[in-house]
Specification:
Length: 120
Amino acid sequence: MIATIAKRFTFDAAHHLPTVPADHKCHRMHGHTYEVELVFRGDIGANGFVVDYADIAEAWQPIHDALDHRVLNDVPGLEIPSTEILAAWILDRLSIWNQLVRVRINESSTTWCEMERSRG
């Protein structure tokens, strides 16, 4: 049987978007409490899990440490820290799991980005 599971995390960070016009509000430094949801899909293993939630939390910790209470523009690979680039950056770092199918990031209560792993 195939199951879909997800685990949600948060982190706080500041950023600015250097590629938007200087009068755009996101050109200025500002911050968000980001909510990240990692979605996994796959067969249920002999242990009863698609992926153990504890293993997901352990793999998330270095990402959290790299992002939380940081200026995202200073993180290598996030010089232009749009939500889209941030989602791809996180997905790349968790590519150890074939079962990881999607990363969703809420930047605010009204805006989000969802990135799916391309299959092929």
